[in-house]
Write a structure and sequence with these properties.
The protein is an alpha/beta fold and about 475 residues long. The chain has three domains: about 250 residues, Rossmann fold (3-Layer(aba) Sandwich); about 120 residues, no CATH class; about 45 residues, no CATH class. The chain has nine helices and 24 strands. The chain has an eight-stranded mixed β-sheet with strand order 1-2-4-3-5-6-7-8, with helices on both faces. The longest helix has 17 residues. The chain is elongated. The N terminus and C terminus are likely disordered.
Length: about 475
């Protein structure tokens, strides 16, 4: 990664500088960073990540009051910019944001529990889109996000542009065409929207239902018609989710300036990231990690995988419903859990096109035997996982017990006389000989004077003794 710095400012003042990093796509991300005065890597602070509007840049959020508010709280503030000024909800700007966060992690560590995202206009919903696509429990998960003049539904806004005769705006450039031109174009609009209102099953909004969201729009009629009215539907979608603040500002404006910035920063300070919610709905646009699950999609093109999970550590329950386009689901037992000795499950596949799936439990103790409804059925692998084929609905009681097996009897490596009877003998003698395997041998007996008294060919056969009963 590359980086450039301005000289450090006077003691007691924040350090503001520009830097850059090379992304996975091999382009360069530029970003502006403000490190608070009194920063210490031993006590990593919270961070506010800014997403700029169409035509804006990494400097946009620094023209507002957010930089001063972050300095007051001892927080880092940073904003990124890619090789163009277009829509910041697509995959490429997400790579830019990741490159910036990686660079900061290496140079100015921040609290991974207190990442807040804030944007204006075209970047206003980018925090939600980021979380939709980057919500693995060990990733840069956000604790809360805020936006001014959010564009929640990319396809809806593009259709508004088309209706007004504007055919060359940011979404067409960013996604490569019009929504009606192909399934792939529409799929890109949906996967990088905060929500696709026309069909919420073709949206990833369920991934952010546990993330607090603050949204404001300007008071003028155009602002509300173009951006804000859809928020009413969005608020209904989030009724059972995390805290949601949605509504028009009391004054005209657009973007960052319609947010009550001091109130938003104070609001941010009340939230830490939730990595292991008990009840989750998921949507996945590609194979990868989502919260504590790993997903492999089925073979239906341009179709989000969908699944629901409910876990109850106290009752030792794990209920799963595979709704659509899931070929394999792995649940990683990385969340706080009591001793995994019993697991009650109701697992269902209700996907009419994908009628079976593989469910894998991972990050569990090795060297255990898993009984299914009382029948010993599986061994935990050396990797610490176990897999179950699932068709339809199954009610399972899984019990986990240590795999205790008797130590194997030692295998002889040479011939050894184990026993001879009767002793003393007269006319007949029985010899027991331990042998490393089946082989031919010559048995020779000598008298007390060392003279050969008897010789015979013998065929030795290995005999396995049964283990003594436990």
């Amino acid at each position: 990664m590359l980086g450039t710095f301005a000289p450090s400012l006077a003691l007691g003042q924040p350090q503001v500088f520009d830097a850059s990093a090379v992304t996975e796509a091999n382009d360069t991300c530029q970003f502006r960073v403000q490190i608070p005065s009194g920063y210490s890597p031993d006590q990593p602070p919270a961070i506010v990540v800014g997403w700029h509007a169409l035509g804006g840049s990494q400097y946009e959020i620094f023209a507002e009051a957010f930089d001063e508010l972050c300095e007051e709280r001892g927080w880092i503030i940073a904003s990124h910019m890619g090789p163009n000024d277009r829509h910041w909800n697509t995959r490429i700007p997400q790579l830019h944001c990741r490159a910036m966060l990686d660079w900061l992690t290496e140079n100015y560590p921040f609290s991974l529990d207190s990442i807040y995202m804030c944007g204006g206009s075209m970047g206003a919903a980018a925090g939600q889109v980021w979380h939709n696509n980057n919500c693995a429990y060990d990733d840069y998960m956000i604790a809360a996000t805020a936006g001014g003049s959010q564009i929640l539904d990319c396809q809806l806004r593009q259709e508004q542009y088309l209706a007004s005769g504007d055919t060359n705006r940011s979404m067409r450039v960013a996604f490569g065409g019009f929504p009606f031109e192909s399934d792939s174009i529409a799929y890109e609009y949906h996967r990088y929207s905060a929500v696709h209102f026309e069909d919420t099953t073709e949206s990833m909004h369920v991934n952010t239902l546990t993330v607090p969201v603050w949204s404001n729009w300007g008071a003028q009629e155009f602002e509300w018609n173009a951006y804000g009215f859809a928020a009413q539907d969005y608020a209904r979608l989030r009724l059972l989710g995390a805290q949601t603040i949605i509504g028009p500002a009391s004054f005209d404006g657009h973007g960052f300036n319609v947010l009550p910035q001091a109130d938003v920063v104070e609001w941010f300070s009340h939230f830490s990231v939730q990595r292991f919610p008990d009840t989750l709905s998921f949507a996945a646009d590609q194979d990868g990690s989502y919260y504590y699950c790993d997903i492999r999609l089925g073979e239906q093109p341009y179709t989000f995988a969908r699944w629901d999970i409910r876990k109850d550590s106290l009752r030792k329950r794990l209920d799963i419903v595979l709704l659509r386009n899931v070929a394999e689901l792995t649940v990683n037992f990385v969340f706080p859990w009591t001793t995994l000795d019993t697991l009650f499950c109701t697992w269902s596949v209700v996907d009419s096109l994908n009628e079976s799936a593989l469910i894998r439990l991972a990050n569990i103790s090795r060297s255990q035997i898993v009984s299914v409804n009382g029948t010993p059925s599986y061994y935990i692998s050396e990797a610490g996982d176990v897999a179950f084929d699932l068709t339809g609905t199954a009610h399972l009681l899984l019990t986990f017990k240590p795999d205790i097996r008797p130590a194997p009897l030692p295998v002889p490596t040479s011939l050894r006389l184990a026993n001879a009877y009767p002793n003393p003998f007269n006319a007949q003698l029985t010899l027991e000989v331990e042998s490393p395997g089946d082989l031919s041998a010559v048995v020779e007996l000598y008298d007390v004077r060392g003279r050969l008294a008897f010789s015979a060919n013998a065929q030795l056969t290995r005999v396995l003794r049964p283990c003594p009963s436990m």
